[in-house]
Write a structure and sequence with these properties.
By secondary structure, the chain is of the alpha+beta class. It has a single domain, classed as hypothetical protein PF0899 fold, CATH 3.30.2320. 26% of the residues lie in helices and 29% in strands. The protein contains two helices and six strands, in the order αβαβββββ. A hairpin with a 5-residue loop joins strand 3 and strand 4. Helix 1 crosses helix 2. The radius of gyration is 16 Å and the shape is elongated. The protein starts with a helix and ends with a strand.
Length: 106
Amino acid sequence: MHEAGIARSIAAALRGRDLAGGRVVVHVSGGHHEPADFDASLLAHLQAEAPDFAPFVEIVHDPSERLCVACGGQFRAVLSQDPCPACGGAGLPMLENETVEVELVR
């Protein structure tokens, strides 16, 4: 599970920082994961790795490119079951690398 490595990296980046009154926003896009599964796994690993930081973490899934199987159009969506806005067809994920960005918000 790559979420364990991501949690480890987040914990290492946050160690020694005072998060009182702040939060950590983890932006995720691309890849081929289901957001709920990714969130549960990342938060569980983060809780094990750095329980003091876990309550401050918010995960935001940014839309990624999808290809409509019905009309061939491209659109952006978060969930794999989100329909094409042009025709309502199903969307296939494009081959887009997963990106994870960590933002410290004060």
